[in-house]
Amino acid sequence: MLKSKILITCPKGIPPFLKQELINKNFPVLSENIAGVETEGSLDDAMLLNLHLRTGHRVLFTLKEFAARDADGLYHAVHDIAWEQHVPEDGYLCITSSVENPTIKDSRFASLKCKDAIVDRIKEKRGKRPDSGPERDHSVVHLYWKDDHGAVYLDTSGEPLSRRGYRKIPLGAPMQETLAAAVVLATGWNNAGNFINPMCGSGTLAIEAALIGLDRAPGLLRNNFGFMHLKGFNEELWSELREKARQCAKKDLSGKIIATDISPHAVEAARKNATTAGVERHIDFSVCNFSDTPLPGNSGIIIMNPEYGERMGEIQKLEATYKDIGDYLKQKCRGFSGYVFTGSPHLARKVSLKPKRTFQFFNSGIECRLLEYELYEGTRKIKKPKPDDRPFGDHAPVDAPVPGDGNV
Ligand SMILES: C[S@@+](CC[C@H](N)C(=O)[O-])C[C@H]1O[C@@H](n2cnc3c(N)ncnc32)[C@H](O)[C@@H]1O
Predict the structure, then answer these.
(1) Is the Cβ atom of 289 under 6 angstroms away from ligand 1?
(2) CA 394, CA 280: separation in Å to the nearest integer?
């Protein structure tokens, strides 16, 4: 089967985890950039990646790279591709794009030009145009065009893989599923011990931890992907891949996953989401203040994602919560590896513990850190930070543009 470059996109901060996932699945890493990792393989490989990857958003199969200076150049380059071999007769097409070209003011125009090239080509070959529109639940084509360099991909994911499908009950400020998976992977949790998640909100961290611990392929939770709407979709192989993934999954965890929240509504939502994800029986849920969360034994991971507030009043109120989190970690969680995920450097300092390591992530565009604390006997307090300390006291923030999508 034809092999090509496959680009897997992800949010900033996640590429190192995505890269490791690819290596674990024996895929070569051709390159890595700020928001994606490139590998290679066939469309069958793309199916496997959609099924197993936890931290990727879209698995983009490269059809063609080209040089195009303006919209006409783009039209001709895209029109040359044998779209009749990819888009089914009764197909529906969505074009997404990521465009930074000096001749184009609105990326939707580039998407439109790309769509015209595809449907014109198909009409010439078959006498009928496919339908097109913004829904990503059928065939999806992605256009990348920066300056003179363009690339066209089959988006084999369709809807981004972050939409696992288990979060039926949304709450305020939930973490994206792919980000939660990367955060769990950053803690190194692999089912070897306990995973404690006070302030669990809608349960995303605990659910992703359960899926990771049980080695359950996240793609088993979804029944629609872009590759299913391409000509030549190998349905038989897809069933085999799913069956194999089911058989490889573990039946039980060796440690405990505990998820608590002060809000009964949040715990109810988290429990329902876990049920939809098929991991409810692997997580012990309860309603309580974070500091009353039951701790089984005296080791494992304890991770909290408190609110980080936007307005001044909210931030002032949260200062006390962060201070209490620090006291709780110091006094009650000795022997655990403690983690706090926050988007506020100011509030992070209120924890008053010296992080052993920090990981940089982005949550809905906000720069965040996962702060790791080693909670041994007599953990030291940090010295008061100087006013000119950088945001989280370590490396400078990454600041690179991520072009937006322009679906048509
Ligand atoms: C930012 S949300 C967590 C979001 C979660 N990571 C998710 O993906 O849905 C913070 C949660 O902390 C909870 N919370 C706030 N104060 C708390 C406290 N003192 N004890 C326990 N939970 C608390 C809130 O109810 C809220 O659900």
Answers:
(1) yes
(2) 38
pLDDT above 90 for 297: no
Dist. CA 187–CA 70, nearest whole Å:
46
Nearest residue CA, atom 18 of ligand 1? 289
Q: Which residue's C-alpha comes closest to atom 19 of ligand 1?
A: 289
Pairing relation of β-strands 92-100 and 139-146? parallel
User: CB 220: neighbour CB atoms within 10 A?
Assistant: 18
Residues 6+ apart with CB under 8 A from 347: 306, 308, 309, 315, 318, 319, 322
Contact yes or no for 107/98 (Cβ under 8 A):
yes
The pLDDT, as a whole number, for residue 401 is 28
**Closest CA to ligand 1's atom 13:** 199
- Structure-token match 């980080």, residue found: 308
If you measure from the C-alpha of residue 267 to the centroid of ligand 1, how many angstroms do you get, rounded to a whole number? Answer: 10
**Residue 34 and residue 402 in contact, taking contact as beta carbons nearer than 8 Å:** yes
Mean pLDDT to the nearest integer, 106-126: 95
- pLDDT band, very low/low/confident/very high, at 378 (cuts 50, 70, 90): low
Please check whether residue 219 is in contact with residue 50, taking contact to mean a CB–CB distance below 8 angstroms. yes
Q: 145: Cβ below 6 Å to ligand 1?
A: no
- Ligand 1 pocket member 55 (CB < 6 A): no
For residue range 199-247, list pLDDT tens digits in order: 999 999 999 999 999 999 999 999 999 999 999 999 999 999 999 999 9
Q: Identify the burial level of 297 via C-beta atoms within 10 angstroms of its C-beta, where 0-12 means exposed, 13-18 middle and 19 or more buried.
A: exposed
Tell me which of 98-107, 178-187, 202-211 is least confident.
98-107
Q: Which of 177, 154, 186 is nearest to 46 (CA)?
A: 154
Please name every residue paired with 237 in a beta bridge, in sequence order, or none if there are none. Answer: none
Q: Is the CB of 305 under 6 A from ligand 1?
A: yes
Question: How far away, in angstroms, is 204 Cα from ligand 1 center?
Answer: 11
**Residue 310: its pLDDT value, please?**
74
